[in-house]
Fold this protein.
Amino acid sequence: MRKLQQQITFVMVLAFLSWTALSWSAALGAQDLVTTEMMEIDSGIHPESVPETSLYQEPTADQQTQLRISQLESEIDELRASFWNSRGCQKNCAPKCDDPRGLTLNLGMVFSKPHMKESFEATVIDFGTGSLNLVPFDFEHDITPKIELGYFGNNAMGVRGRYWGYDHDANPLTAVATPTTFPGVSSVSVIYPAAISTGAPGDVLSVESGLQVHTFDLEGAMRGKLAGASIVASAGVRYAKLDQSFHSVVMRGATPIGSLDWSRRFEGAGLTAGADASRSLGSSGLSFVGAARGSLLFGRKELRRTTVGDVTPPSAAVPPTIVFDDADEVSGIFELVAGLQYSRATPMGKVFVRGTYDTQLWTAAGAPTLTFLGFEGIGLAFGIDR
């Protein structure tokens, strides 16, 4: 009986010692796991790299260097995030922030050419064929500046201004009369026609014409997202000025025998509204870009025409000079733009280069009667969104 009690006591003591050993082992194992995980997080050291024969070991020189590098990288990330947060981006969006707060600058040019609907600058009567040939205006593609400057805040709202201008002349026209062809010029101002013409072989017709257009926009804008595309919707005011000039003369030797000059001027302001869109094409940095804009302007216009040697019957019934001055006028302007853009994020902002096809339609223009004036051409722009 006593032996049995001793055996039971021995088993109980053994169980107690085993339980104590297991408890201490579990506690030490947990401490070692926590220490190892902390070392992995701070220095990038994998737990398997810690020797199993030691519960704690001083980091080696390589481990200390790696730990310091990790700390420096963390500090750089914090500084970068702080910089971009101060510019209106969310944390860690620095390289991918599409719409950072700050200035936007777009410096561009458009190789633009005017098109005038059913307008002509000269006529040629051909008695050989019995036809009257109309000679269109001969404008070419010329460089025109296009500049945009804006500022956007944290709330995606902003303000921007824009300028575009065209100031070029058409290619001059010189035509010499022959025994069967007689060049001339015809013009209708309001409802009053006028014309000059060569009258004998050897007479020379010379024609020059020019066109100036300037637009200035000031508008509020709002950025947003729609179906994966970045959208900028805007509305504001536009000021525009248009000046068309035309000069022609018929010379017989050194003596002018006829001339016809006319001009059209329009100056007005009104509302403008539009939208710009860009859609990324994968991760290449390329994007499809497009824009649409409409403006309705109200202002004043002036038409003038002076004719010497008018050959339209009855020429005596119309004075040589017609003036339609300080008249109310309304003009609509519609624009469409489409193209491709390459952009790249930098610490200074998103830098981009853009190629587009630009088009415009003016409703109260043309020459010299009231027709339509259009512009089209290839645009090239460089810019930055800061």
Summary: The CA atoms of residues 48 and 82 lie 36 Å apart. Helices lie at 2-43, 61-85. The two ends are 93 Å apart (CA to CA). The first helix runs from residue 2 to 43.
